[in-house]
Design goal:
heterodimer, A: 576 residues, alpha/beta, ABC transporter transmembrane region fold, Rossmann fold, 6-stranded mixed beta sheet, 12 strands, disordered C terminus, B: 612 residues, 4-stranded antiparallel beta sheet, elongated
Chain lengths: 576, 612
């Protein structure tokens, strides 16, 4: 249990929980004995005073036991919830420090489950272990001791019943577990049919295939039902079998007890006590066997949490803090790059280019040519394998990472908005910005026109990552956000793709008017979006294949001409 | 569903017709509104497996009786010991053994039958729900959260299944047990019964108070967890943005704050939950002492036997156990009913229907493909018209490109022609027949459609292409694939046409998926073809490939193209420019350029480079 150290700050609660649990359990265990005393000495012996005295003692004990129980619940809550919070915070902090190759590797969904489900799982296990494990073990062992102290012959029953019970549980669990995972798969299949039909409703309807889809669903559905029944069939054997073992033990105890009473070595009340104990012991073993399942589940969760928690970020911050030399130059010197963990060809091969201060620079290329990868190196989302990337003449690896990223405004291909108002979303770029600044940024980004049409305007709430906005609207908001940041270098990573061309050209003009001095790097697939840039770099297969103005490239670069023709001219004959 | 419409910031947001529906926040914890009605409906689903249902009831009755008989036999056996009547002891023990064995056997059947009942019931529900989902109108699909719809199919159905297999059984046998034990206890000793019943009533009261507290904190905990979940997802999905704005610290601070309030609520919930057991224990043990005390007293007075005390303690446990169980099941039944309500809400939605009251004959095989839109008005949301007096004539075999700014109503035209949505006023005619008079299935069989978001199914490539024509020969499928430029890449796949696509075809590239969709349309061989050009996520080389496949597809058909790129526009027989819900210009490329109107501006914007 690597995570046990997170319990340290709560050591007192951690210690108090099992202690008070012991109190509760001892009281539980003493009851059948006291009961036996009442019956045997009080009732049979005709001693009313003893009945009352023992009864009161029992009540007092019970109250004490109850208090211990409540106490252990409270202590355990404080320990396990505190544990979970600290663990959660540390894990999230670690996630926020990870490099992209690492978050890519984990995937979003899995990070969310690790931080919520897995931590809850481990927290519940801590709670469970501190209380139930202690409780059931004491009940189990205590029950055995108490029962044997009543009469050693009862041990015979235990010797027979316990192993049988354990073996039964183990066999059935072993049989059922693999089927459970098959059930999960069948369930996934059902889900995926539904998913496809919901998101593909138009196609299903357009091809009039409702009947076919229903049949497909039926197959998956019946399959799921049958697998479910298979596992249920196994599990419905478990309970009756356990019951039989328990009940036969009861009979055996009455029988043995009967002989002992006949021989004068035991009293009737003791048989009753023994019956209670045997039930307790056998229930205990059931609980403990279930605990093994939850241990293995918690262990799996722990492993998944630790994977995140003990991942070292690959990209480490440097120490260089630049003064206010607002240059905005970017240079790539013999840069090669390959996505970590991938084999084969590097995405960028020995590429060199200098982007000048204040330049309007475009990068054009097909998907997979390395455009986005290239600019990812500027902000150090990834690090180059070979060569150097320089910003304002300093290697990006030497920069204090916050200082570096402050210089760069990046509008991503997929615009990410966050839940909050329009104001808050734009103000991400600069928390201290005034409303006027924000509105101005929105105007430049051509976002003002639709924001002001929203009923709440800039105070309108953006829910669910902007699901209520169109792709173009989201892009314009994230452009506004980057503009507000006043970066030296503004990068558009194919982030105007959802804008219609009219809006895009207005944006272009507004940027030129308002942000004259900053360096703009623009990645695009639409040739119309980049034609007016100062220089266009054409990437192919990770290498720079041509660079120059639109006119130069039309003359000199065949690749550029190809792209140009494919977009601007009729393509019927361009078949290849 | 009311919540769906009340989402904030929803102006400028007509449901995007060809995209995914907007996602509203998923609501945690609902309380059922019409408990009885919903229960009745769930029961009627169970009633479909009548035999199992009644067998199960019989089995549960038997178990209850046996469970009630056992303590009494046990008591008799113990009485024989104190009465030194050892011969009878063995006799009673044998009977007791038989009863136990029988109980176990029947318990097995109970488990098996309730599993069977719940699985069958749930299977029928899923089937019904799915058939409803496939027949729901597109408007419903567009305006409802898909995740929410999915969760009805999975979580809600699951809840009902759990409820049937666990709760209903224990509810039924619980009630029987309570009644049975009460009768037997009364038979043994009315006074002791009174004592034990009063402690049990105390227990019930106690439980209900505690669960109320508990549920409050657990609900709150669930909500907090959901929020935390949302925050993590937002930050991780948007990680690139978070990092480029150096907002990691803010994210962590916010997380820590949420995390701590989750801890606080968690502690409270846990204290409530954890105290329940010990406190109940106190109450039930007080009952135990009282019974022992009074029982001892009565035994002294020779009113009852010692065995009776033992039996009584067992019965009072038998009596209180189902009460606790029912209290525990209460929450589960409630979630199941809430789930049922959500499922039935979908089932009660109106399906797509044909309203061809005057049922005009429409001959499918002989469609020539003349389409006319006459004075169409349409809006997705009331008072926000998308099409206003829209008129358009398309002649058989024409290739029509529809252009216009985002939100101008291009895709709406498609939605109306296929009757995914119904027009508010006006008429659409195909070959002079109002499409309202054609059955939707016939209408749609006449129209082929290739969407921007390619839809593929997790099935073989072969059956994906043969989607519209399942009985197609492999040779037909291959030739369709060839026309669509898809044959080459399919043959290169390890299993060729039999390659099974993973969910939504994610093991293919965007371009390849689009080619498959085109092949599908080729094989369907429709008279009228609608192309929502898929280009924005495909690179230019691939696009050329797709483009030429589309050209092949459009041959000899009336085609409507929602155009994004110039190449297709120039080739079109007629270009329709839509602005603000109306056709503002139409003609071919050269004509429209000469008009120097809307189209000219659009063109200039896009291709300013050539113009200068």
């Amino acid at each position: 249990m690597k995570l046990a150290k997170y319990l340290k700050p709560y050591w007192l609660f951690t210690l108090l929980t099992p202690l008070s649990m012991v109190g509760e359990v001892l009281v539980d265990l003493s009851q059948p004995r006291l009961m036996a005393k009442i019956v045997d000495e009080g009732v049979v012996g005709g001693n009313m005073e003893l009945i009352i005295r023992t009864g009161i003692m029992m009540l007092l004990l019970i109250c004490f036991g109850g208090m211990c129980g409540v106490g252990s619940a409270a202590f355990s809550g404080m320990a396990s919830q505190g544990f979970a919070r600290d663990l959660r915070n540390d894990t999230f902090k670690r996630v926020m420090g990870l490099s992209f190759e690492q978050t890519d590797k984990f995937t979003t969904g899995s990070l969310v489950t690790r931080l919520t489900n897995d931590i809850t799982q481990v927290q519940q296990f801590v709670d469970f272990a501190l209380r139930m494990l202690v409780r059931d073990s004491i009940l189990f062992i205590g029950g055995i001791i108490m029962m044997l102290s009543l009469d050693i012959n009862f041990g015979l029953v235990l010797v027979c019943a316990l192993p049988v019970e354990m073996v039964l549980i183990m066999i059935l669990i072993k049989k059922a577990n693999p089927i459970y995972s098959i059930v999960q798969k069948k369930l996934d299949k059902v889900n995926s049919v539904v998913q496809e039909n919901v998101s593909g409703a138009r196609v299903v309807k357009a091809f009039v295939r409702e009947e076919h889809e229903s049949e497909r669903f039926d197959r998956a559905n019946v399959d799921l039902m049958q697998t479910n029944l298979k596992v249920q069939k196994i599990m419905s054997v478990l309970n009756p079998l356990l019951m039989i073992v328990m009940n036969l033990s009861v009979i055996a105890i009455i029988l043995i007890g009967g002989f002992q009473v006949e021989a004068g070595e035991m009293k009737v009340g003791q048989i009753m006590a023994a019956l209670t104990y045997i039930t307790q012991i056998l229930m205990g073993i059931m609980m403990i066997s279930m605990m093994f399942q939850s241990i293995s589940r918690a262990h799996a969760s722990e492993k998944r949490i630790c994977e995140v928690l003990y991942t070292e970020p690959v990209i480490k911050s440097g120490s260089y803090v630049s003064d206010n030399n607002q240059l905005g130059t970017v240079s790539f010197r013999n840069v090669s790059f390959k996505y970590p963990g991938t084999n084969g060809e590097p995405v960028i091969k020995n590429l060199s280019v200098d982007i000048k201060s204040g330049e309007n620079f475009a990068i054009l290329g097909a998907t997979g040519s390395g455009k986005s990868s290239l600019i990812n190196l500027i902000s150090r989302f990834y690090d180059a394998d070979e060569g150097e990337v320089l910003v304002d003449g300093v290697n990006v690896k030497d920069y204090d990472i916050d200082c570096l990223r402050k210089k760069i405004g990046m509008v991503l291909q997929k615009s990410e908005l966050f839940s909050g108002t329009v104001y808050e979303n734009i103000a991400w770029g600069d928390k201290d910005a005034s409303k006027a600044d924000i509105e101005k940024a929105a105007k430049i980004a051509q976002a003002d026109e639709f924001v002001s049409l929203m009923p709440a305007g800039y105070d309108g709430y953006i829910a669910e990552k902007g699901a209520s906005l169109s792709g173009g609207q989201k892009q314009r908001l994230s452009i506004a956000r980057s503009i507000l940041k006043k970066p030296e270098i503004l990068i558009f990573d194919d982030s105007t793709s959802a804008l219609d061309l009219g809006t895009e050209s207005r944006l272009q003009r507004a940027l030129e008017e308002n942000l004259k001095d900053i360096t703009v790097i623009k990645i695009a697939q639409r040739i119309a979006s980049v034609m007016n840039c100062d220089r266009i770099a054409v990437l192919e297969h990770g290498s720079l294949c041509a660079i120059g103005t639109h006119e130069e490239l039309l003359r000199t670069s065949e690749v550029y001409r190809d792209i140009y023709n494919s977009q601007m001219k009729s393509s019927g004959e361009g078949d290849n | 569903m009311a919540q769906q419409q009340k989402r904030p910031a929803a102006v400028n947001n007509p449901p995007r017709p060809l995209g995914k529906g907007p996602r509203g926040p998923v609501l945690v914890h609902e309380k059922p509104k019409d408990v009885l009605g919903t229960l009745k409906r769930i029961l009627s689903y169970m009633g479909r497996s009548k035999y199992i249902f009644f067998i199960l009831l019989a089995v549960m009755l038997a178990i209850t009786v046996l469970n009630l008989a056992a303590p009494s036999l046990q008591q008799k056996a113990i009485d024989t010991i104190s009465g030194v009547d050892y011969k009878n002891l063995v006799k009673y023990l044998i009977i007791l053994g038989l009863v136990y064995v029988l109980t176990s056997v029947i318990t097995y059947f109970q488990g098996w039958f309730s599993a069977k009942l719940s699985q069958t019931t749930v299977k029928i529900m899923r089937t019904d729900l799915f058939r409803k989902i496939v027949t729901l109108p597109i408007r419903y699909i567009d305006t409802h959260n898909h995740g929410d719809l999915m969760s009805r199919m999975t979580n809600d159905v699951e809840n009902i299944s759990n409820c049937i297999s666990q709760s209903i059984g224990s509810l039924f046998s619980g009630v029987l047990t309570i009644i049975g034990s009460l009768v037997i206890m009364l038979y043994y000793s009315p006074v002791l019964t009174l004592i034990s019943v009063s402690t049990i009533i105390l227990t019930v009261l106690f439980t209900s108070v505690m669960t109320k507290f508990m549920r409050k904190y657990f609900t709150r905990q669930q909500i907090l967890l959901g929020k935390l979940d949302g925050h993590i997802e937002e930050m991780v999905v948007g990680y690139k943005t978070v990092v480029s704005y150096s907002k990691e610290k803010d994210a962590i601070d916010k997380f820590n704050k949420m995390s701590d309030s989750l801890r606080k609520t968690g502690v409270k919930a846990q204290i409530c939950g954890g105290s329940m057991g010990p406190l109940m224990n106190i109450v039930s043990n007080v009952g135990f002492v009282l019974i022992a005390g009074f029982g001892g007293y009565f035994a002294l007075k020779k009113i009852i036997s010692i065995g009776t005390i033992q039996a009584f303690i067992l019965y009072s446990k038998q009596f209180s156990r189902p009460i606790n169980e029912i209290a525990n099941q209460y929450a589960q039944i409630q979630t199941a009913v809430a789930g049922g309500e959500r499922i039935f809400a979908v089932m009660d939605e109106e399906s797509e229907k044909d309203d061809n009251s005057n049922d005009r004959e429409f001959i499918l095989d002989n469609v020539s493909g003349n389409i006319s839109f006459k004075n169409i008005n349409f809006s997705y949301v009331q008072d926000k018209p998308v099409l206003k007096g829209f008129n358009l004539e398309i002649k058989s075999g024409q290739k029509i490109a529809i252009v216009g700014a985002t939100g101008s109503g291009k895709t709406t035209v498609v939605n109306l022609l296929t009757r995914f949505y119904d027009i508010d006023s006006g008429e659409i005619e195909i070959d002079g027949v109002n499409i309202k008079d054609i059955s939707k299935n016939k209408l749609r069989e006449t129209i082929g459609i290739v969407l921007q978001d390619t839809v593929l199914f997790s099935d073989t490539i072969r059956s994906n292409i043969a989607y519209a024509k399942p009985q197609a020969e492999l040779s037909e499928i291959e030739s369709a694939a060839k026309t669509a430029n898809a044959d080459r890449f399919i043959k290169r796949l390890p299993d060729g046409y039999e390659t099974v696509l993973s969910e939504s075809g994610s093991n293919l590239s965007q371009g390849q998926r689009q080619l498959l969709a085109i092949a599908r349309a080729v094989l369907a061989d429709p008279k009228i073809l609608i192309l929502d050009e898929a280009t924005s996520s495909v690179d230019t080389r691939t696009e050329m490939n797709i483009q030429s496949a589309m050209v092949a597809l459009m041959k000899n058909r009336t085609s409507l193209i929602i155009a994004h790129r110039l190449s297709t526009i120039i080739d079109a027989d007629k270009i329709i420019v839509i602005d603000d819900g109306r056709v503002v210009e139409q003609g071919n490329h050269e004509e429209l350029l000469e008009q120097k109107g809307c189209y000219y501006n659009l063109y200039q914007n896009q291709f300013a480079g050539i113009a200068t």
